[in-house]
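Researcher: Quick test of sequence recovery. Tokens follow.
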């Protein structure tokens, strides 16, 4: 999910990317055919597979490997399982499955924090926006440089 460092059971946001790195000495089958598409199944819902052939990109000058990034959108918070199947050009399948936990995109705010420096209006930490009558307010958007 989102990048190559994701470990099954990890957390992600409500709109992650499914990332897959594929390699086979004979090549990856993207010509589809009955039942031979690159597919992902979310939470066992086989009646609504994600067909991913168009998202696969072969590595430049190397038909034996490539990758894909597929956007998943508006997932509900909680535990999910995704199953991924791809085929080589000789129609041999490989299936992999991971679990992940979707956490909401709520904004984290610290309020009512006692901070004697707040009277001096100094900013001495990433994400600290401004002092108020109740202490400093922290916003992850400010920490990430977003406003």
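Model:
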């Amino acid at each position: 999910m989102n990048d190559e460092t994701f470990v099954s059971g990890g957390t992600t946001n409500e709109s992650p990317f499914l990332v897959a790195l594929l390699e086979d000495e004979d090549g990856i089958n993207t010509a589809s055919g009955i039942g031979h598409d690159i597919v992902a199944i979310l939470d066992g819902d086989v009646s609504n597979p994600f067909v991913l052939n168009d998202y696969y990109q072969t590595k430049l000058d190397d038909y034996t490997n490539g990758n894909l990034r597929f956007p998943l959108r508006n997932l509900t918070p909680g535990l999910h399982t995704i199953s991924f199947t791809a085929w080589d050009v000789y129609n041999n399948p490989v299936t992999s499955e991971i679990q992940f936990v979707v956490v909401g995109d709520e904004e984290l705010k610290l309020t009512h924090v006692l901070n004697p420096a707040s009277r001096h209006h100094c900013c001495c930490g990433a994400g600290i926006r401004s002092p108020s009558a109740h202490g400093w307010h922290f916003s992850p958007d400010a920490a990430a440089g977003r406003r």
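The longest helix spans residues 140-143.
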